Every structure is written in structure tokens, then in C-alpha cells.
Amino acid sequence: MFINESEILQPQDWSFPIPIMYGPGRIVEITDLCLQHGIRKPLIVTDKGSEKLPFSIKLQELLNNGKITFDVFADISPNPLDTDIAKGKKKFLDGAFDAVIAIGGGSAMDGGKAICLVANNAYDLWDFEYERKDTPQINANNQFPKLITIPTTAGTGAETESTAMITDTKKGMKFCVWHHSFKPNITILDPELTLTLPRNLTAWTGFDALTHAIEAFLVPSFNPLCDAMALEALKLVSKFLPVVYDEPNNISARAGMLVGSCLAGVSFLKGLGLVHSISHMIGAEYNTHHGLTNAIVLPVVLRFNLEGMDSQTATIAQNMHLEELSAAKLISEIEKLMGRTDIPDNLGEIGVPLDCAHRIAKKAMVDSATSTNPKKVSLMRMEDLVKTSIIGKRTT
Fold it and tell me: Any idea which fold 197-391 has?
């Protein structure tokens, strides 16, 4: 796609995969949007660090001005817990709310979606676990609440699907919950909301989007729709992540990142890989930032996955605007971008101890992303990947 940076700031309404309102300043339409969808009393769901941030204040002011009754639930952890979701469900029911507005980063998106999954029924949260075959029965008497998603980071891409990653506090593991008949009703992609994102979170969430696109494209199944979105995401993220890191107020770069993140999020409907398998379990145990963890693990896993995948590697490299198309060059460029954006060398630097490697590897083996990785992996090899991620150094 030819990226015209004047057109990238024009408001757009898209209908795939859900209705999307895109463009700078679109959050001002939230009151009309609520009324159009019959929403009279929404519960705002966000994470613990976002309740007092400018985008949350602005959302509340707009709803107040529009005479929309609401309340805020901000008890969502950086890696959302099943106990957070139970509290959110209680808040939703006690207040007799009719919808959820999820605003914030990936944790807010996942928290809001998970609360919607359980709010109007008697099912346990883990009845909605992705791998279960006995899908909960949803009908007119227990239908899901309406949901509006408003991402304020350009990374997770969680705003268009029902899937949510939640930590099982008893098992110390992350699992995906979802339901085939549940999706957000609409999402607002407003790049102005990402302007205040700190540089470190800009980098971490940007690498999350990059990882989504690369892992999704490498999943060995026929899905040209997801592949096309993954490759377009790679073009946008690789172009705009360095720019937005150096120029935080560059609204065109913020816009490109937000769209790229959304596309990457859609692309991983195809599946993910070992970066996420490891990152999910590290996050569940050590509460590390998901995007940062992905960034550190990505080169390690690519060295394992890309051997013998010359065609796929070349396609990824081309769409990341690289002239040399080898796996070594691709990984080298990713590591250079990590260095440029101050991503640590290894997981040990962010508090992950080496003695967890075997335990994390065992948990990662049963993660749903392992089943869609392009190469089969043994427990011993998984443990090696975890160890290398914890102690390894970049090659560049």
C-alpha cells in the first residue's frame, strides 16, 4: 500500500472485521455512539494506571456532557487476573449497567471483554476457555452486554475480537477466553489518544504489534485475509515505530501505528507462536509487560523458527522495507530497532530468574499459541529458548 500521510489523518468508517470509527478526535462522538446503540448506562473498564490519565478524564467529561450515566471500574491488573474479572462482574451487576466501554491498553481491552463474557450468565470465566469443546450456551435471556472498545496504545490490537488473555491465579498461567458469538459492537481508533503514551510504552506496545504480525504470518495455514493484514501491519509498524519513538507528537506516525496495530491484531486470528507461548507464562508469573516480554523473546524464537523458511523470511523482510532478505539480516535489523528503542537485552534485566526456565517451559508447552507455531518444539528445546531469552545477548 502507498502510504499517503495526508490521507492517513482523514476520518474513516470501516466495517471489517467489526464497525471501526477511525480518525483523530473521533472520541468526541462517544455520546452519539452510545445513543445509537441503545446504551444508557455504561461501565467504563480500564486498568489501574489509566483511571486518572487524560483520555479517561476526557471520556468521562464527554459522557457527563451528553447526560450519559456511567461509573468506572479500574481494578484491572497489567496482566488481568481472574479475580479482577470477578470483581468487575460484581460491579456491573450491582450497578445494573447495560454496556461496557473498555478504554486503555491491552489489559483494559482484555478486562472489559472478559467482564462482558460472564456478566449476564452464571458460567464460570474458565467455561469460556479457548480450548474447551463444550461452548457455553448464550441466548436472549443471558446475551452479552454491548461493548465499545477504545484502544489508547498501538500494540495489542485486541479491540476487534472477543479473545482475552486472563491469568488463572490458582495455576499461575495465562489462558485465552472467548465466545464465537461475541464481538465488540464498535471500536474507536483515535490516534490523538496515543499522543501522551510514554516513549517506553510506545516502544513496548509497538513491538507487540510487530510480533503479532510476524508470528501470525508464519503460522502454517492457508488464510490469505490474515496474511494480507499481517503484511500490511509490518509495512506500517516498521515504517512508523522508529518515527513515533523519536517524534512522540507526530500524529501521522501515531495514526500509522494505531492502524498497523489493529491490522496485526486481526491477523493473529490465524494463530501465533512460541514468542507468545513463553511471554504469556512469564507475564502470568512475573507480571512483566507483555509487549516488552515479546520484544525480548522475539529474536530468540526467530532463530529457531526461520531456519529453512527462506520464502516466508524474504516476504517479511520485503514488507519491513529491507533490501537484504536473509533471516540473519532480518533478525539483526529487529535487534537494531530494539537497541534504538531501549529494549533490554534479556529477560533477566526485567527480573525474570534463570531457575524458572523449566517451569515456564512446561507451562508454555500447553499454551494455545504453541500448537500454531510453524515448527514443533520439544520440552527440552522450549526450555533452551526460555533460558536464552533470560540470559542471552544480542548478536548486533
Answer: Dehydroquinate synthase-like, alpha domain (1.20.1090)
Is the distance from CB of 108 to CB of 50 less than 8 angstroms?
A: yes
Quote the pTM value.
0.95
Give the cell for residue 140. Answer: 436472549
| Helix H or strand E segment including 148 | strand 146-151
Q: What pLDDT shows up at residue 249?
A: 97
Same CATH topology for 7-193 and 197-391: the answer is: no
> End-to-end distance of the chain based on CA atoms, in angstroms?
30
Residue pair 123/135 in contact by the 8 Å Cβ criterion: no
Looking at 3.30.420.140, 2.60.40.2550, 3.40.50.1970, 3.40.190.10, the CATH number of the domain 7-193 comes to 3.40.50.1970
Burial class (CB within 10 angstroms; exposed 0-12, middle 13-18, buried 19+) of 153: buried
What residues have CB less than 8 Å from 379, skipping those under 6 apart?
Answer: 361, 362, 365
How many C-beta neighbours within 10 Å does residue 253 have? 26
245 contacts 340 by C-beta, under 8 angstroms: yes
Strand order in the sheet with 71-76: 12-14, 20-22, 186-189, 146-151, 99-104, 42-47, 71-76
Domain locations in the chain as residue ranges: 7-193, 197-391
Q: What is the DSSP string of 203-263?
A: HHHHHHHHHHHHHHHHSSS--HHHHHHHHHHHHHHHHHHHHHHH-TT-HHHHHHHHHHHHH
- The rounded distance, in Å, linking the Cα atoms of 250 and 54 is 18
**What is the C-alpha to C-alpha distance for residues 319 and 312, in angstroms, rounded to an integer?**
11
Task: Retrieve residue 68's grid coordinates.
Answer: 450519559
Q: How confident is the model at residue 141 (pLDDT cuts 50, 70, 90)?
A: confident
pLDDT of 96 over the 60 cut: yes
Handedness of CA 246, 110, 151, 267 (dihedral sign): positive
- For residues 106 and 50, the answer to whether their CB atoms sit within 8 Å is no
Q: How many alpha carbons fall within 13 Å on the CB side of residue 218?
A: 33
Q: What is the CA radius of gyration of the chain?
A: 20
| CA atoms of 350 and 345, how far apart (whole Å) | 10
What is the pLDDT averaged over residues 322-341? 96
